Amino acid sequence: MIARNLLRYLFVFLSIVWYVLVYFYVDRSEFIFLTSGVIVLGVSYLYWVVNKSFSGRQIILLAVLFRALLLVGTPNLSDDFYRFYWDGNFINSGVNPYEFTPSEYLSLTDKENSVEWQQVYPFLNSQEYYSVYPPVNEGFFALASFLAGGNLAYSVFFLKLLIFLFDIALVVLLIQFLKKLLLPVSFAQIYALNPLVIIELTGNIHFEGVMLFFLFAGCYFLEKQKMLAASFFLALSIGTKLIPLLFLPLFLPFLGKAKSLTLFLTTGMFLLLFSYPFASLEVGMNFYQSIDLYFQSFEFNGSVYYMLKELSYLIHGYKSPWVAWVLPSFVILVILSMVVYLWRTKPYLRNSKFNFLLFSKYASYCAGVYYLFSTTVHPWYVINLLVWSVFVPIRASIYWSLFVFVSYIAYSSFTVSFAPHGDFNNYWLYYVLIAIQYFVVVIIFTFDLSKKKIRS
């Protein structure tokens, strides 16, 4: 027992050291150092998860500690924060972020009097695109920019602080769900102490944790049968990230027609309310154009998509537009099939209290199918699948949250040096590592299913 205690706290010490090293001293181009750090953090994390090492209070304290280490400093694995700052300043200047692309805005302004904009503009990764972030997310950008007085470094800090607070609130909420479901509180470690969650959310300023807090808060109020509050939080969730739209159809077999209709209508009304400050027909068209560009033009860390793209090249000699749209269509069909299956085989669900545990199981399936068939799977996207593993014993998402770091080979010095034109899309090593990643994930998921331990 003493040896086990010493080992788990040795891993805590090692994790503190490596979070500092990985975040403050490693760039995303330094692939070997980055993956070495992730291996150390991953081994520590897996040891805690397997041995159910910590109590609820200890999990919260460690979650706070690890995230607090990354509250200062500039994100080292993502440059999205420049767009967050840009959009936030747009809003605080009275400009609609959905109305102009950054390049359009600069063409209409006096560049000599917009030094701050010019300092940020060269670092934007989507200068020609309208903002693709939903309105609640834009509100967070504006709040951080306002609190920072328009200063980039302070804006980064306030964005981190907002994400940190919501992420800790989510950890507390997950623990409350586990207690209510009479499941071990130690399961919260799966999310709370996960290196991907800590590095990509508080460290690199992504809003998955904020979105998930609102989503789980909505489920909490559904269990309490407080439909208005549930709708409010579900709308906040969708207004932060669009991914919860995947889960909306699942509510139908769990709530029945009448309650589901009420939930959908009130959620839609709240979304319209949140969108009202930005709304216009032109803005709607611009936002749709950005979404369309996302599916048609962006590709990163895909799996089935890459195979279909190669098939299209073999047949047509080019990438057909149908490749990007057939995959979302297939995902929608799979989700609707789940809804029909639940409606027909489990009619008791809609006549009883909201079954959060079973909902988690099918929500994890929805997220898993979506990301396996997506054109773009940035590492932090996997968090939206990982969180359900707190309640559903699917190890594949836990291991995927660690293996997904291999996708950073796309930005490595190897790619810059050896890939044709420095483009990872033409680099054989990138595809080898991506293939290994998905092969491991699918194999582990197959074993998960074969053990038949997935709760129903």
Describe this structure in words.
α8 packs parallel to α11, α11 (208-223) packs antiparallel against α12 and α19 packs antiparallel against α21. This protein has a domain at 299-456. It has 456 residues and is mostly helical. The protein contains 21 helices and no strands.
Strand element count: 0
Distance between the termini: 34 Å
Q: What is the approximate shape?
A: globular
User: What structural class is derived from the secondary structure elements?
Assistant: mainly alpha
Structure annotation, total helices: 21
Low-confidence residue ranges: none
The major sheet is characterized as: none
Provide the gyration radius in Å. 22 Å
Rounded mean pLDDT is: 91
Strand share of the residues?
under 5%
Q: Which labels suit this protein?
A:
456 residues; mainly alpha; 21 helices; 68% helix; 0% strand
Write the layout of secondary structure elements.
Layout: H1 2-25, H2 31-51, H3 56-68, H4 80-92, H5 102-108, H6 115-120, H7 135-147, H8 152-180, H9 189-192, H10 195-203, H11 208-223, H12 227-240, H13 251-275, H14 281-297, H15 304-316, H16 322-345, H17 356-372, H18 383-386, H19 395-403, H20 413-418, H21 428-451
